[in-house]
Amino acid sequence: MSETAVILDGYVDEPACLGVPPYISPYIRTVAGVLSEHKYSVHYLTIDQLRTDPKQLNVLNVAGLVVMITGATVPGKYLGGTPATLTEIYQVGTALRCKKKLIGGPIGFGYSPQGGQKAVKHAISGFDVMLEGPVAEALDEHLRGNEPRGVLDYARSDAWSVAGSGIIREHPDYPFVMCELETARGCSHGAYGGCSFCTEPFYGSPQYRSIDGIAAEVKALATHGAQHFRVGRQPDILTYLAGSGEYPAPDPDQVERLFAVIRASAPDLKTLHIDNTNPATIARHEEASREALQAIVRHHTAGDVAAFGMESADPAVIAANNLKAQPDEVFRAIEIVNEAGRMRRDGIPELLPGLNFVCGLAGETEKTYDKNEQFLSRLLGSGLLVRRVNIRQVMPFPGTPAYDNHTLGTFDRRFRQFKEHARQQFDLPMLKRVFPVGTILRDVIVEINGALSFGRQMGSYPILVGIPMRIAPRTVLDAVVVDWGMRSVTALPVPITINTLPASAIKWVPGIGKKQAAAILARRPFTTMDAFHAVAGRSLLDHLISL
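Given the sequence above, the corresponding structure tokens read:
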């Protein structure tokens, strides 16, 4: 009988990799593949499952080997799960009584509890081995009796990603699991200093996976029921298999081949999205970038987001932190993504940009925030579409220039004002533009049940959907947008069944006020639509209303 190994997923969040539910990171699958190759019977557990049921510790204690994978090098807010805290990591390491306990992932770069605080590189006590470098390669070396230190080698890890693909079936969200696909590691800008705060340059110059290797993994994942994919573990999808230099020109043919092969390898997929896209690449190589974006749109699924690391609209901050693009270049990149992706499929835009601002960087002044606000005002006035704006304070890590050169704590009041300004003056009107009343959001998965239930679609930065009625978690439904918050929409299930809609939800039907809602409740059930219209009048959503 083979010995048992358990992967404990403490979740990861990096500039170019997300592994917080419903996402599952590539680390998990390749580590599962290594363990399988070494004849272990492999199982999977998340930190959230351990939090909810501490008895799960017994599962870990009887294992021959436990590998914990964790670490966040960018701050985030999460709905589906929360990365392990440093205290929890210590508690797990101390409480484990298995034969051998190992830990790896971006936790090796250090730990910070949130944005606005410097990370500290800790010696992680309680574990027998720290897996250094690429986790799967380091684990393989250790199991072969060598030093637990890995060197990235896709010739080895491609096979592990296939062998470990079945681990997704043990994810608590399965089958609603977003498989983060790795296409590259390392940053071309990093060889030229990199952005002052970013940890991706720690991985060196870009190394690219082969299309065949990616295709084999996607096919294996699809065999195990995966239907949701994001090509997210890379710093700039447009430069996949591109040339050398700080800002290599995209090769649209390679991008086309990549996405066509993913589609062919998982013909029943429901989600195919992207993540990181460098605005500097687009601004410097407009035509090649446009063609690459159009190739993505031909093969992906709608509702996609190209995340731009803008960081700041202040040229002085851009220069002080070796950032990638000037404000006018970012603006031009937004225009080009709109040209390629703002058309709608089934009511929602194909592909829109998302903006990331990082505050607390070197060179900031009060005027930096004025310039950020002016950029958003210009953008809103242009009529262009942007899916979302993320605003966070820098989380400096040891080894990055920002660790010793930043302005954290200097402009906290102005940071909070900028964030509130963006939410009130930009996010709300932009949401109305992107998701007008009547937009139908397909396959919303309910995650939180309450008087106001919350759900999201599978995707890259999916909009949070508030539904004013109690709906069981894991219910999948179509919903129509009826109102907006600053970072969410209010929606009703489609069809809108007026005879059974709860009282709390009727008032959200456009055109129905408090008086009409009371009259509807008093006269239900209606036997004909004419009888309903006699009480309620006509609505913008009449075509979605049924009895």
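The radius of gyration is 24 Å. Try to locate this feature in the token string yourself.
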